[in-house]
Amino acid sequence: MKITFLGGAGTVTGSKYLLETGSSRILIDCGLFQGYKWLRRRNWQPLPFAINKIDAVVLTHAHLDHSGYLPVLYQQGFRRPVYCQQATSALCGILLPDSGHIQEEDAKYYSRHKLSRHSKPLPLYDRATAEGCLELLKPVEFDEKFTVGEATLYLQYAGHILGAGSLVVEAEGKRVGFSGDVGRPDDILMNPPQPLPELDLLLLEATYGNRRHESSDPFAQLADIVNKTAKKGGVLLVPSFAVGRAQALQHILASLIAQRRIPEIPIYLDSPMAISVSDIYCRYARHHRLNREQCHRMCEAVTYTRSVEESKTLSEQHYPHVIIAGSGMATGGRILHHFKRLLGDQSTSVVFCGYQAEGTRGAKMLNGAESVKIHGEWFSNRAQTTMLHGLSGHGDYLEIHDWLQKSALQAGTRIRLVHGSPEALDSMRDYLRRMTGFELEIAADGECLEL
Predict the structure, then answer these.
(1) Are 115 and 109 in contact (CB under 8 A)?
(2) What number of other Cβ atoms are within 10 A of residue 289's Cβ?
(3) FRET partner for 199 with CA separation of 20 to 30 A, picked from 108, 190, 345, 418?
């Protein structure tokens, strides 16, 4: 068995791992590179293998840094099965076409305003291509075994977001685990990740390998921000990931209103994708903590703005309100249009509620950027910018250590750390080496690992 690291190694994005046995070649995750331009350029580079030699793709979950490159494979002729958990299939049906649509719109905008060095900027893929690749999805349930060649595979519950799983592959007398993104034991929405079985090798995420989650109460913190913003007559802008984070925010805000901890100011979910995802969370309530009553309450507390026209009318609101819109790292989506008109107003508040990859607009704003570049233009940033703690879908290094301790992993188990910044990877390796008997190394981009 051989594993080649084609993404997600030395960085938190672009997850792709090629697993080869004597009879099959399986691509584990198929993610987009996001963040720095030099990373995003990798999306345009050809993969170092023949597409027609891949027997299957398996997705650990639906986030674009794990699934968003799938339309590129389809565009290049890939027509083999793509296995994923049932809820992941439903979410990909929303996220992938939306990704294609955003890329189309961005390409048109850059062409119209001559903001690209290319005479005719093109999207990486369009909406039609993304919709086409959905026909490849083969939904499976958690713990349901399936085969690709001689390999037997299954996904087990990982928390993080709806449908997220850790993948276990058995082939050639070996058992290999791919953690995917691992959730937290006390997540607001998701249940704790399921402990792993005994493995010969584990590819383990290290997003929070050098950081602890703060113990602050996100309900209290968000109540304080909403109340202060409302008092100064401002608007609260919340860049949000459509999957998981938007639903957690709706739940928190609905709960705070019901408890009379914040005023009943208008709350807008300005994201067609997040609106559709909220419906999916209600459909798959058995996979998260909220009951049906809580799901319906979080939806009823928020006004949905689906169309572009409805989104534009928000500029006419002159009283305190909350706008939740994509994208979570402010790299695209409707939040940018609200930024362009409101960042210069010091009564505006901006709350980020998840990990901000290095080089993204969100990371720069949290680091105190006094101006931000949006669609080729610079805009003054006078807004009060804050990170809302407690909503991350990733376990930190202590929480992942606890998860590993509850698993059946034996001393000497080989672990390769992936999906983290260089600092996070190095810190997590050192910590786990001190605290466990596992054999820890950091995966290198392009590395081929033989078992």
Answers:
(1) yes
(2) 13
(3) 190
Report d(CA 34, CA 332) in Å as an integer: 11
- Encode pLDDT of 349-406 as tens digits: 999 998 787 788 999 999 999 999 998 899 999 999 999 998 988 999 999 999 999 9
Residue type, 342: L
Report pTM.
Answer: 0.88
| Cβ atoms < 10 Å from Cβ of 380 | 11
pLDDT of residue 146: 98
Short-list 340, 338, 346, CA closest to 373: 340
Closest CA relative to residue 267, chosen from 285, 277, 255: 255
Please provide the DSSP assignment of 411-430 as one string.
TT-EEEEESS-HHHHHHHHH
Q: For residues 6 and 296, what is the distance between their CA atoms, to the nearest angstrom?
A: 41
Q: Is the pLDDT of residue 97 over 80?
A: yes
Q: Helix 422-435 vs helix 397-406: angle between axes, to the nearest 10 degrees?
A: 40
pLDDT in tens, 255-286: 999 999 999 999 999 998 899 999 999 899 89
Q: Is 50 strand, coil or helix? A: coil
Residue of 27, 121, 24 whose CA lies nearest to 67: 27
Dump pLDDT digits (tens) for 319-356: 999 999 988 889 888 999 999 999 999 999 999 998 78
Sequence-ordered strand ranges (E) for 246-376: 267-269, 303-304, 321-325, 349-352, 371-374
What CA–CA distance (Å, rounded) separates 86 from 165? 11
Catalogue all structural domains in the chain, each as residue range(s) with its CATH number: 2-211+393-450 (3.60.15.10), 218-387 (3.40.50.10890)
In 197-327 the beta strands, taken as DSSP E runs, fall at: 201-205, 235-239, 267-269, 303-304, 321-325
Q: Report the C-alpha gap between 436 and 440 in whole angstroms.
A: 9
Q: What is the pLDDT of residues 346-363, one digit of tens each?
A: 999 999 998 787 788 999
Three state DSSP letters for 159-219? CCCCCCEEEEEEECCEEEEECCCCCCCCCCCECCCCCCCCCCEEEEECCECCCCCCCCCHH
Residue 307: is the preceding peptide bond cis (ω within 30°)? no
Q: Which of 367, 424, 369, 374 is nearest to 400 (CA)?
A: 424
Helix (H) or strand (E) holding 378: strand 377-380
Relative orientation angle of helices 245-258 and 292-300, to the nearest 10 degrees: 80
Per the structure block, which two tokens stand in for 140? 């499976």
